[in-house]
Amino acid sequence: MLSIRKTMALGLAAAVLAVGFVAAAPIIGARAEEGSEKWLVDDAEAVMVVNFKALFGSNLLTKGDVADKFKKQLESDEKVKAFVAATGLDVTKDLDSFILSASKISDKASAKGRMVLKGKFDVEKLTAAMKKADNVTASKEGAVNLFEIKAQDQTLYGAFSGKDTFVITQGKDETVDLAKNGATKAPKTNKDLDAALKRFTGKEAFAMAVLVTEEMKKQAGANPQLAKSVGALTTVTVATTVSDAVDLSIVGNTTDGKAASSIAKQLTGLHAIGSAAIGAMEQIPQPAKDLYDAIKIDSTRDSVTISLNVSKETIEKAAKMEK
Q1: Residue 7, pLDDT score
Q2: How far apart are CA 38 and CA 28, in angstroms?
Q3: Domain spans of the chain, in order of start
Q4: pLDDT at 163 (0 to 100)
Q5: Residues with Cβ < 8 Å from 315, sequence gap 6 or more?
Q6: pLDDT less than 50: residues of the chain
Q7: How far apart are CA 291 and CA 245, in angstroms?
């Protein structure tokens, strides 16, 4: 079965329907698309959402120099043109969200993942394109077009559920059932992961929440420096919001304020050491050093936060540096 790292990697590949091109917003209780939480696996320990509408509809990618450069690159890329012609899918307009959920992430033998891509699909064109892919074998299960996808050493099964959903799972029967009937019931959930997901605003372009399981804490116990900090964590969330700038936030939710403060102090110390080391490296450009120094670490009553704002000016300078 899939490890969480492989699941996440395969998830990004699945977001492009496994044919060579790579949300709704946060799922539970965060102004999500109605019913989207039903697509999660039972007892999910990790949830990742890519909100394509928020990303491609942001000021950064619709207005100004960066947006102009992004548009020109897409318009001049022959592979992108060929992909759109073959599939009828314009990823900047037709995709809504990509949702990945996984359970038992610390147990390779029984880990389970599900990937769901939401959008506006030309099912006929996409089906024809996937049948031509080297890593895809197409077959019929009743009225369902089923795609067996080879991804590294894994076999996954994908199918369309209507014209707005493409689902991938590790089981043929599970995929066929979801294709025929959709997601019909709310999944079993973990209260800590639910609470973490509810902290998202619904405006994030990328959001991820991971439950810190007992197995993770056990593995961290081998390192005395990590054991105490990880032992106090319940969940970790990552969020990226794109406007005319980019805001990154990593939050460790803890059992108490004392633990959060302690973790923040440890991270602040590590950040200072890193800043001194990076500052002495001539091969690292100054803008990268400035970004590292701009990282902020803080704690609240029950969480520790690492945040970074990448301004519009910084992004535009970086874009101009590219040849």
Answers
A1: 39
A2: 9
A3: 4-181, 212-321
A4: 93
A5: 60, 66, 245, 246
A6: 1-32
A7: 13
